[in-house]
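At this stage, I put together one protein's amino acid sequence and its C-alpha cells, which the following lines show:
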Amino acid sequence: MSDNKQIIPIHVALIPDGNRRWAKKKGLSPWVGHLWGARALQKILTEALSMKIYCVSFWGGSYDNLIKRPSKEIDYLFKIYSSWLTKLLIRKELVKHKIRVKVIGRFKELLPKETIKIINEIEKATEKNSGMFLNILIGYNGTDEMLDAVRSIAAKNLKPEEITEETIKQNLWTRNTPPVDLIIRTGEEGDPHNSTGFMMFDTAYSQYYFTKTMWPDFKPEEFKKAVEKFLKTERRGGR
C-alpha cells in the first residue's frame, strides 16, 4: 500500500449515465429518467456530505447533450435544472454545512434567463462558504474548457518557459477546485470510457469506478462501495 494513503477522497466526480436507458427499460419517456436521476443525485450528495467529502462535481449535461437531443427532452431537462436548483437555494444544508455551489460550463448560452438568474443567486449566496464544494456541470465539454484555457493563456503573451501547470490550472473553469481523486461513471455497457475530455486536466491521476447500475438506480450504498474500493487501491501518481 502507498504511504500517502488518504482517509477519504477529497474530490469525487460523478458521470451519471443511463437515465434514458433506465426510462426506456421501464417503458417511460426519456425525461422521466432525468427526473429520477435528479432524485438520485440528492441522495448521493447527502451521503457525500455525511462522509465529509470536500468536493463533488456532478456532470448534469454536456454541451452536445443540450443541443443535439430532441427538443422536448431538452426542454424537460431545463425544467429539471430550474426546479432542482430552486430547491437547492433554500435548503438548510447550504448554510448549516457551508456548502459552496458553482455551476460550470456554457450554460449561459443554453438555459432560460430565469434559470441563469437562479444560478447567479446560488453562487452569490454561497461564494464565501468553505465547508463543502459542489460543482454542477451544465453545458460542459472538457474540450471546451481546455480550449478556453489555451486561448486565455495565449492572450497573456507569456513566454513558453513561463507557462507552468499552475498557469493552466488558473485558467481552467475549475480553477478553484482540487484535482479529482475518484470518478464514478454509472450505466457502463462493457465499454468503460471518458467523454468529451471530461475534466481532462483535473483527472490526470484519478481512479475510476465503472458500474452497470444506471444512474436512477445508483444508491448511497454503492457510492460508499466505490469510495471503499478507492481507499483500497494504491495510487502511484504516475510513478
